[in-house]
Fold:
Amino acid sequence: MNDKVFIDSNIWLYALIETQQEKDQFKHEIAKKLIHQLTNIHVSTQVVNEVCINLMRRADKDNDFIYTFLRDFLAAYPVHDQSADDLLTAATLRSDYSFSYWDSLIVASAIHCQCRVLYSEDMHDGLFVYDDLQIINPLKAKEA
Structure:
């Protein structure tokens, strides 16, 4: 299966940040494995920004690390630049699905990238958006 997939920032952060907490360490392993198994991964500038700010805040990464991370990440994955169309689609999604503002922008980007699956921990697991995009929480079965 080579369908396009979109990965939300929370999954990236679990994959990138190791922790001593057993529950989060398990999620770290699941997220890392998922990303390594997938092909045709897409992200948006919003996801990249959220990952970088959280790497600086939660993992105490400095600007040199972020620069190197960005250079490698941008070379590895297509990044969707959010547009005016994304903003309008997001507004419709908030009305149609009651998504939060930020989640609606993630979903809009995934739709505009023509992804079939959006992996996210904190959205409506199993939901089909406009019959084209399914939201999947790959960590759900592993939660306590």
